[in-house]
Amino acid sequence: MAGASLMMLSCTSCDNIDEQDRLIPIERPHSEKVVLLEEFTGATCVNCPNGASTVHSMLESEAFKGKLVAVSLYPSQMANLTTPITTDLRTPEATEYFSAYDGTSKGLPSAMMDRTPYKGSVLQLLPPTWSGVVSEMLKEQSPVTLDLTSTYDASSRNLTVSYTVDYNDPVQEEVYMQLWVVENGILSIQASTTGLIYDYENNHVLRAAINGTWGESLGASHIPGSQSAGMASITLKQDWVPENVQVVGFAYRASDRRVLQAHLLSSITE
Question: 35-265: which CATH architecture?
Fold first, then answer.
């Protein structure tokens, strides 16, 4: 009886299994690529409203809807273009980013898409070219999936943002996570090619970095299926309208600051 069992075991264990069937690869879902567009602008820059109009059209287009996150950054350099007429939207963060990419050698308005070089330059000066650069960035697949949630306390004006970064593919390089507060619907006086605009509406304006100017490190050597998570808080200033505040989060590589994925939290009060 024992011999018969041994013979049956021997027969079943010797079945030939095709090599391609021995390992079944697990395909992890990938979220749709979302491109980060950082637009540098200034209150006394007469051509900057054209840049803002270009960004608005891109955000509203069917080609980019839900696939593009835009942020307007007001640096302090080039005082003849950036000195405010009324409302001062300049931030230390925007000033530092503009310096990091040698913005004064390019001018305003200028923009960078995923902080990725295109035709030899990260900063792109001509607004009509921006949509083409975004289209190129969208051809890539992101190795990570981002998610943002927030809690807002109206009495203290404290905003806490939590994030998760899920790795769909291996990411060996060090990754950073950045969280920004941006605000829509800010009215100011803006210079333009046709004169001063007295009720100019500024949208997706960078107000502050929540977790430091360059974000926080998530470490390196991330494997598929792993996750990074964290949170950060900020107190909204009195002149920031909570109903108009949004949060932008993005993960990027430490080595070249290239953005891997961006995410917009469209409301903090809902």
Answer: Sandwich (2.60)
